[in-house]
Amino acid sequence: MGVLVPLARLLFSAIFITSGLNHFIQLDALTTVAQNAGVPEPRWAVLVSGAALVLGGLSVLLGVLARLGAATIAIFLVTAAFMVHRFWLVADPVQAQDQLIHFMKNLSMAGGALFIVYFGSGPFSLRRGGRQESGLGGGRLGSPLRH
């Protein structure tokens, strides 16, 4: 059963790693999206968020500083939900529904990231020496952040 945890980390992190890389590949297009959404310093925001997504996704995937990586992902997701997917400002009902779906998807995935923040990376992690790290760095599955 322990193999489910690394599989879950792979499935969870894949979207963030690929999306983060896409921030660099599609830098100009995503900068325009961020600019149209009113994000301050849109080019830097895309670059920083791309790096946060790649590093956060890799940390969750590998189980190294997974709690910190998941916290970074959660912060990005909530920020993007409220800054980019503002469905309440969209007049066209079809586009508003599309933005609502993205908004709720971000909040849902942020909730999943917070589970990792709380429980840690679980088995088959690349934590140093296999020992449990304190703080936001690691921890065994079922070992909450606070005791």
Write the layout of secondary structure elements.
Blueprint: H1 4-25, H2 27-36, H3 42-62, H4 66-84, H5 93-119
Helix pairs in contact: 1-3, 2-3, 3-4, 4-5
Summarize the structure.
The chain is mainly alpha-helical. It contains 5 helices and no strands.
What would your notes on this structure say?
With 147 residues, this protein is mostly helical. The chain is 67% helix and 0% strand. It is built from 5 helices and no strands. Helix 4 (66-84) runs antiparallel to helix 5 (93-119). The protein is globular, with a radius of gyration of 16 Å. The two termini are 25 Å apart.
Mean pLDDT: 89
- Helix/strand order, N-terminal first: HHHHH
Structural class: mainly alpha
Output the radius of gyration: 16 Å
Q: What tags apply to this protein structure?
A:
globular, 67% helix, 147 residues, mainly alpha, 5 helices
